Amino acid sequence: MAQSCEVCGRKPVTGNQITTRGKAKYLGGVGTKVTGISRRTFRPNLQTIHITTANGTNRTARVCTRCIRNGAVKKRVHAVPFRLPKAAKST
Question: In Å, what is the CA distance from 66 to each residue of 7, 44, 47, 73?
Fold first, then answer.
């Protein structure tokens, strides 16, 4: 499915968007009034990233940012980190 996270399964949910008008009472007004309620969709923040799977292969996946931040997926390593060559043993 295009709009769901491949790791946790997070998908869009629906809710209300509430429009208000007026000045709050603590600011000297008569209070805010609800002037409209319309339906809206809360979508997960999905990112297409390159990941390394458990068997060591690389592939792309659509993952939500919460799974990326929490470390639920392992991002692909673009280049092997630099390592110093082993020093020759001196006798």
Answer: 10, 9, 10, 10
CA 54 to chain centroid, in Å, comes to 21
Reading the block at residue 57, the tokens are 């292969």
In sequence order, the β-bridge partners of residue 33 are 21
pTM above 0.85? no
Summarised one tens digit per residue, pLDDT across range 27-74 is 999 999 999 999 999 999 999 999 998 898 999 999 999 999 999 998
> Would you state the pLDDT for residue 35?
96
Shortest CA distance to 1 belongs to which of 41, 39, 46, 42?
A: 46
CB 32 within 8 A of CB 19: no
Give the span between the Cα atoms of 5 and 69, in whole angstroms. Answer: 13
